[in-house]
Q: What sequence folds into this?
């Protein structure tokens, strides 16, 4: 499929819109995903991330606007597009009556992968997601992390050039998450384009070259994680926990020592170029802090700055 | 043919339990024909009402059709809902080049195979009970399967609209069971009051039962075409409606 000259966009969305009856799920968004990059949709639940993913994956027709995936139209060429992409859904939908290996064999058949190619490829995939010892096990008793890895292996059975991952690590424990991230990173190194939705800041920072932040069905900002932090936050953040009295005292003159302050119910966030200096100033003025933490600014801060709300409640 | 991949998947999953399933497919007609056909039938000396055949012949033919209807309906309820909502297998299939029509037709074909796996042993048991006298009787098997498929297609269309499985309790209690009892399986619908007869004649089971009996134990009449037409039209409508509803459900 030929893209327009000079463009290496694998996905092109223009005024992409999805409406369900009264609900506006995706409200006229524009974005491009380039070949070989890891692109993220970051936002809280209900922001429109999954609806966008489903339109890209050809399982939800668009209400308005235009969308090209690998140069094709998802409405009229859905089978052709689906043959060349892989999808890791938000909730695992494996065949729990079948074994790990059988799940992959069955899925390879859906994609018409010839038998002699499917066999070795499946062996490789099982090894890639570190399930070799479980190859003959049924799916049902596997842990959440193993099921997730199997779902990822299944999405790779057709050697897709584009992999859609809808909240790939939601519900996994930290160790399992890191294992999934590691595998995704390797895929990216092999040149697979990744599109990831997440509501985890650390996931977006770990995996994404570029991302858009979605809120209320719209894209509110876009850029690389570092870019967004530079544009919408300061370099460092001072997180303070203090008593109500001390909070009141801090409020009176805090403007002098920080670019911006967020008064959260349990914490106060001071955005500043130097957290240590700000903390020293606060202590000089005799304000007692219960805990004080200086950290690098994250996408969480970006989201808070833009929407005024924290991302994960 | 993408629908065949769905059949393949279902057969693979089903294959693990086939021995048990086959055992049930044989055991069930043996028990019914012994108890109702021979046991109850021995007390039925008045055979005029059954067109001059033994009660066991009358009952067995009705039961073949009724069993296929029940199996067709059942397989279009929980197993489909399971794959649609609970295990989300269809979502996985749709992420591959398979489309909604492949899923629907593949499921319907799988139900057809499953029905054959019920009807063939059933007819075998009937043969052992000496129900058949003409080779034409073998056509009763595809007719019973067609009846089951026609019912399955309509119920799949219904399942595609459901958000919970609560409606199934009502479906089995107030639709399937009355149909089973009152569509001429156990006794000729001529015994019903006029309104009952009219209602019975509108049901798919009545047409399936009549056609099975004409092929297996009575003479074939012109009305056979009407019965066959009824079942084919029902299957056509169920399929069109089912594909539409499943499309709306899975590709919103």
A:
């Amino acid at each position: 499929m030929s893209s327009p000259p000079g463009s290496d966009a694998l996905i092109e969305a223009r005024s992409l819109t999805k409406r369900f009856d009264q609900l506006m799920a995706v409200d006229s968004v524009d974005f491009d995903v380039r070949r070989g990059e890891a692109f993220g949709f970051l936002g809280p639940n209900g922001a429109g991330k999954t609806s966008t993913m489903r339109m890209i994956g050809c399982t939800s027709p668009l209400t308005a606007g235009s969308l090209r995936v690998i140069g094709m139209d998802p409405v009229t060429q859905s089978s052709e597009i689906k043959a060349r992409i892989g999808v890791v859904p938000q909730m695992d939908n494996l065949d729990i009556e079948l074994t790990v290996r059988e799940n992959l064999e069955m899925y390879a058949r859906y994609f018409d992968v010839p038998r002699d190619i499917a066999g070795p490829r499946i062996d490789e995939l099982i090894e890639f997601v570190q399930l070799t010892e479980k190859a003959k096990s049924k799916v049902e008793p596997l842990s959440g992390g193993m099921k997730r890895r199997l779902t990822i292996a299944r999405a790779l059975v057709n050697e897709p050039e584009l992999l859609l991952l809808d909240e790939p690590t939601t519900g996994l424990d930290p160790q399992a998450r890191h294992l999934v991230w590691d595998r995704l990173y390797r895929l990216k190194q092999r040149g697979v384009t990744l599109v990831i939705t997440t509501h985890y800041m650390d996931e977006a920072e770990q995996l994404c070259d570029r991302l858009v932040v979605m809120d209320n069905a719209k894209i509110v900002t876009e850029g690389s994680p570092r870019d967004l932090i530079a544009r919408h936050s300061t370099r460092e953040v001072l997180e303070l926990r203090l008593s109500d009295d001390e909070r009141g005292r801090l409020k009176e003159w805090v403007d002098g020592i920080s670019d911006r302050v967020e008064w959260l119910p349990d914490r106060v966030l001071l955005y500043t170029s130097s957290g240590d200096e700000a903390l020293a100033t606060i202590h000089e003025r005799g304000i007692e802090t219960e805990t004080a933490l200086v950290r690098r600014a994250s996408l969480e801060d970006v989201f808070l700055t833009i929407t005024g709300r924290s991302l994960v409640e | 043919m993408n629908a065949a991949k769905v059949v393949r998947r279902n057969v693979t999953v089903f294959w693990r339990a086939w021995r048990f399933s086959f055992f049930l497919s044989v055991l069930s007609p043996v028990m019914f024909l012994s108890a109702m056909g021979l046991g109850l039938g021995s007390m039925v000396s008045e055979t005029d009402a059954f067109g001059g055949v033994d009660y066991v012949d009358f009952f067995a033919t009705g039961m073949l059709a009724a069993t296929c209807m029940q199996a067709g309906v059942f397989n279009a309820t929980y197993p489909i809902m399971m794959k649609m909502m609970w295990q989300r297998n269809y979502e996985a299939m749709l992420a591959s080049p398979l489309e909604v029509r492949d899923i629907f037709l593949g499921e319907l074909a799988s139900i057809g195979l499953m029905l054959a796996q019920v009807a063939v042993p059933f007819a075998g048991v009937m043969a052992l009970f000496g129900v058949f006298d003409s080779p034409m009787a073998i056509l009763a098997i595809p007719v019973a399967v067609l009846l089951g498929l026609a019912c399955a297609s309509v119920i799949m269309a219904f399942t595609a609209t459901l958000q919970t499985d609560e409606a199934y309790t009502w479906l089995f209690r107030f639709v399937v069971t009355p149909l089973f009892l009152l569509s001429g399986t156990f006794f000729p619908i001529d015994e019903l009051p006029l309104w009952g007869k009219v209602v019975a004649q509108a049901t798919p089971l009545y047409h399936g039962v009549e056609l099975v009996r004409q092929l297996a134990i009575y003479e074939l009449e012109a009305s056979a075409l009407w019965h066959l037409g009824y079942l084919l039209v029902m299957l056509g409508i169920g399929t069109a409606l089912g594909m539409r509803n499943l499309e709306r459900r899975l590709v919103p």
Remarks:
- The two ends of chain B are 25 Å apart (CA to CA).
- The mean pLDDT of chain B is 92.
- The first helix of chain B runs from residue 2 to 15.
